[in-house]
Structures are given as structure tokens and as C-alpha cells.
Design a protein that fits this description.
single chain, alpha+beta, Ribosomal Protein S5, domain 2, lpxc deacetylase, domain 1, 2 domains, five-stranded mixed beta sheet, 7 helices
């Protein structure tokens, strides 16, 4: 895509926060060029929190943003969809502290954006292209990113029975994201429910917005949407965290049992060292690719 975009018209949704359990309403509205994605707390005098790596606050069971003590929690699903569907600029009005979980996947947000439509500006879109390999490792988990001329993702996960090991690799485009990743729901294990509730988490969780596994099956009557739905959801989460880079990514991300904290560490490492990346337009990228093919 050559030019920056925003939504054509406002759209809205209502639901509950996965962890807080509070009712919440959001509206996604058009924003000017070079605004990026900005959350607006309408319950707090329209206080703004840009969706940026600079404002990452907590990354344990979700990715939260904070600016001057004001919090926006569980941002990753919505940011994943905006990023993958090619929306560069938008205001997200929200009247509570947590983005609604809806059905636990990105699909309701994809449908919202389809209703909103896309408006293209005349400002050329600028991409963040990785120049050399980067890696973050911790306790047998690793996330790396390699130079590439597109946004490619490899995601390997390993969970207890009955899920086991799963793997996914694809080039992330709006079309492939909408059909192969967006539908995947958040998930957890029945054995962890009490502990998580005691930690003040998953107060809004239900079988309507999350997959719940038992030791040998799952509680959801409708079953899985895909055999590897868990791995696809981790890819969805990963893209949402990478969205905090603030620009469309050109690179091959390889995640091996990584989670929110490692995703955030990778983003911070990239953005803290400008020699690791370059910023270029679609035309500059196309020219470079053409030169490489001719040489």
C-alpha cells in the first residue's frame, strides 16, 4: 500500500473487559495523516494515549498502555486488527480502562472495519524495514526478526495436553489475516481459573469469549474454529504487540514459545537502536527490489 489510510466513517462496539469485567464501549473514528492509533479515554476528559512502545505499562497476561498514570488495558486484539488490515491512523474512543474482549478473537473488529470502510490520504506511507537480525531469548523461549521485503510471521507454540505443539507460517496481508488469523480466540486452562481469578484477572471471561481446555478436551460446546486455533491466536497477539512499532513492518518475525513480555522486549530493542532499521516508502522499497532483480 503506497499511501497512509484511516477509516472512512465512525463505528462502535460494546462489551466487557476480559480481565476487569467492566462494561465498556468503543468508537473507532477517522484521524488525520501521521496521527497513528490513539486511544481517547472519554471518561477522563478525552485523555489521549498513543499506541506506542513508549507507553507500554504491563505485559503479563495482556498488553497495557499507560501515560501519566492513565491506563488502557488489553490492547493487543484491536491493535492487531488495525495493523494487519492496513489502518494507519484512527482515534479509538473508549469509556473505561479495558478494550472489550467481544468474542475473544479479532473477527468482530475486522467486521467493524469493513463497516467503517477505508479512506486513503495523499501522504506516502512509511515502512519500518529491519536491516539485520535481532533476537531476544529467555529460559528456552525466543523471538527473532530477520530482514525481509514483506511482513512474514513464523509462530511456534508448545502447550500442555490436549493442545501440544503447533506451528504457523505466513506472509501477513489484510486478506490472509482476515481469513487465517482473525477468527482465533483467546484461551486458557480450567486448572488455572481459580489462580487467575485470585490474581484479579479474567473477571469478564466466559465460554462466549474464550476457549477453556480441560485435561483431555475443552468446555466450549461449539469446539475449536481450527485445530491449531491456539497457535493462530498467539500470532494474533504477537501482531498486536508489534503494532506498537508505530509503522508497518518489513521483516520476518520468528516466535518460539514467546509471550507478551518477549514481544515488548523485541519492540523496545528495535526502537532503541536506529541502526537496526530504516524508514522508507513503498516506492523506495519497490525501486530497491527492482534493482536487486536486475543485478
Amino acid at each position: 500500500m503506497r499511501f497512509e489510510t484511516t477509516v472512512q466513517r465512525p463505528v462502535e462496539a460494546n462489551g466487557v473487559g476480559l480481565h476487569s469485567g467492566v462494561p465498556v464501549a468503543i468508537r473507532i473514528l477517522p484521524a488525520p495523516v501521521s496521527t497513528g492509533i490513539v486511544f481517547v479515554r472519554t471518561d477522563l476528559d478525552n485523555f489521549q494515549i498513543p499506541a506506542s512502545w513508549r507507553h507500554v505499562a504491563r505485559v503479563s497476561y495482556a498488553t497495557s498502555l499507560m501515560r501519566q498514570g492513565v491506563l488502557i488495558s488489553t490492547t493487543e486484539h484491536l491493535l492487531s486488527v488495525l495493523y494487519s488490515m492496513g489502518i494507519d491512523n484512527a482515534y479509538v474512543e473508549i469509556d473505561n480502562l479495558e478494550v472489550p474482549i467481544l468474542d475473544g478473537s479479532g473477527l468482530p473488529f475486522v467486521r467493524l472495519l469493513e463497516q467503517a470502510g477505508t479512506r486513503q490520504y495523499r501522504r506516502k506511507r512509511k515502512y519500518l524495514r529491519i536491516r539485520r537480525p535481532i533476537s531476544v531469548e529467555d529460559k528456552g523461549k525466543r523471538i527473532s526478526i530477520l530482514p525481509a521485503e514483506c511482513f512474514r510471521l513464523t509462530c511456534d507454540t508448545d502447550y500442555p495436553s490436549p493442545v501440544g505443539r503447533q506451528s504457523l507460517e505466513l506472509e501477513v496481508t489484510p486478506e490472509r489475516y482476515a481469513t487465517e488469523i482473525a477468527f482465533a480466540r483467546t484461551f486458557g486452562w480450567e486448572t488455572d481459573l481459580d489462580q487467575m481469578r485470585n490474581m484479579g484477572l479474567i473477571r469478564g471471561a466466559s465460554l462466549e469469549n474464550a476457549i477453556c481446555f480441560t485435561r483431555d478436551g475443552l468446555l466450549n460446546a461449539g469446539g475449536l474454529r481450527a485445530p491449531d486455533e491456539c497457535c493462530r491466536h498467539k500470532a494474533l497477539d504477537l501482531i498486536g504487540d508489534l503494532a506498537l512499532l508505530g509503522r508497518p513492518l518489513l521483516g520476518h518475525v520468528i516466535a518460539e514459545r514467546a509471550g507478551h513480555a518477549m514481544h515488548a522486549a523485541l519492540v523496545a530493542r528495535i526502537m532503541s537502536n536506529p541502526s537496526l532499521y530504516e524508514i522508507l516508502t513503498f516506492d523506495q522499497l519497490a525501486s530497491r527490489v527492482t534493482q536487486a532483480l536486475m543485478s
